[in-house]
Amino acid sequence: MNDDKPILRYNANERSNHWLVAILFVLAAFSGLALFHPALFWLSHLFGGGPWTRILHPFIGVAMFVFFLGLVLRFWRANFITANDRLWLRRIDRVMLNKEEGVPPIGKYNAGQKLLFWTLLACMLVLLISGVVIWRAYFSHFFGIGAIRLATLLHALAAFVLVLSIIVHIYAGIWIKGSIGAMLHGWVSRAWARKHHELWYRDVTGDKTPPNPGRKEG
Amino acid sequence: MASQDIIARSATTTVPPSVRQVDEVAKLIDTTKCIGCKACQVACSEWNELRDEVGHNHGTYDNPQDLSAETWTLMRFTEHERDDGNLEWLIRKDGCMHCADPGCLKACPSPGAIIKHANGIVDFNQDHCIGCGYCITGCPFNIPRISQKDHKAYKCTLCSDRVSVGLEPACVKTCPTGAIVFGTKQEMKVHADERIVDLKSRGFDNAGLYDPDGVGGTHVMYVLHHADTPKLYAGLPEAPVISPLVGLWKGVSKPLALLAMGAAVLAGFFHYVRVGPQRVEEDEHAPAPDASVQQVDPAVHVYDPNRPDGQGEQRP
Q: For a designed S-S bond to B24, which of B101, B185, B219, B309 qualifies (C-beta 3.0 to 4.6 A apart)?
């Protein structure tokens, strides 16, 4: 076994799918934020003005949801919370300080990534359903004013949670060196896999030595 | 009206101009004098060049059935059976109430698409309207309508173009019974009080003025025979307020949410500055190399020009 050989974390389809969702998210977020607060209305100029922002935003949102479903179908099995994940969450303070002593080994995704996955899925579902209700041009006339008001509020709330989650997601990528590469070109080093996703590393390499119970400071 | 007259502007967080001190105007609609002739509807269409599609008769006198982007005012007819068995025909001219605290303006995301004038008129500026329909979501009276032709929101302007040059609204000018009157809000309240005294003397004990406080009062007011139950008049809301859902959506939560998003970005930045990135040392946790085995980097070739094959001694 060549220990220098990198590991493919995401194949080309997975990477393309991820970046399609990412690009659509940026477009949906900017066009949505333009209508969210007057201080950000200038963002509507990126889309050709207010009316075009209003026209495009829902279509962008639906496209984002559809491609996000692709990611869900690819990755949902890897996102079930395990006992190790609960312990990882209890020791989140150590993780945040780059001190991994006593932080349990984890699989393809850590508990933070898994919680992000389910949060994104919940937000996307709320955004889709509430977004349809407040889509004036095609659907709003099917709903009463009470439903529209509630949907408007939920849409803003879910979008807020989604944007916050993505800020955390982007920062985690910047913080953990090697992660952006994993999603850009697909490959991670063995050391990276062993350090950040030890159980996944053992799984994909067939390494049968007992997992490190509590890793040394590193 | 001059731009100094704009005292509130949608999606604007700074203070509007406040130099003009103008009397607030109001339109008073006396439902007890209305005969349902719809001359006001026609005058509105005439003045504003509105030609709604000819619809169908749905078995009531309401015609058309509802307000639309081309019907800004509408007589709504209600047959009300009184406790004594007598039938009353309650006719209410529906349209924008020109609230002092307009829900449409609060909900609108487009700067300047909805403005409130110093005289109390709430006006839509279709040039800035983006067609999102948030004004409909915000309105407690179900008034604004989005045009299916140009996807802009429309409603009664209180003939702001006429009022600005000292004329009364078209519906007021045309009303043959004097059921619609127009003047300063103060004058209209005095006028309404006189009407209410008269109505009470004629047995309408619950006669009163409809100028709901929940929206800060309105610049279109009604004299009602049954002011205790405005619902009778084709669902005129009892105590209209901007929905708490809209208040939550457009209130303090928005700047807080914006602040939270900015704070999240800053928190990330300072985490990076203080804690720093997580880098993997490439030999971390790798099995320690066996010191007895001599490792040779195959990429390093040593060239020795003194030897016939040019190969130098392999370095340890």
A: B185
Mark out the alpha helices in B8-152 (DSSP H runs): 39-48, 103-107, 134-138
Contact A174 B264 (CB under 8 A): no
- Rg, C-alpha atoms of chain A: 20
Domains of chain A and any CATH numbers: 12-176 (1.20.950.20)
Q: Is B143 helix (H, G, I), strand (E, B) or coil?
A: coil
A contacts of B288 (beta carbons < 8 Å): none
- 10 Å Cβ neighbour count for B76? 19
The residues of chain A scoring below 70 in pLDDT are 1-3, 209-218
How many angstroms away from the CA of A131 is the closest CA of chain B? 12
| Residue ranges per structural domain of chain B | 3-225
* Token pair listed for A156: 């803003």
ipTM: 0.88
Determine whether the interchain pair B275/A50 forms a contact, defined as Cβ–Cβ distance below 8 Å: no
CATH number belonging to the domain at B3-225, selected among 3.40.1350.10, 3.30.70.1140, 3.40.50.10540, 3.30.70.20: 3.30.70.20
Which DSSP symbol is given to A165? H
| B249, B281, B286 member nearest A153 (Cβ) | B249
How far apart CA B118 and CA B111 sit, in angstroms, is 18
B234-262, pLDDT tens digit by residue? 999 999 999 999 999 998 889 999 999 99
Secondary structure class of A178 (helix, strand, coil): coil
pLDDT in tens, B101-141: 999 999 999 999 999 999 999 999 999 999 999 999 999 99
Q: What residues in B contact A41, CB-CB < 8 Å?
A: 11, 109-111
* Nearest chain A residue to B252, by CA: A37
Tens digits of residue pLDDT in A109-134? 999 999 999 999 999 999 999 999 99
Residues in chain B with CB shorter than 8 Å from the CB of A218 are 281, 284-285
d(CA A91, nearest CA chain B) in Å: 16
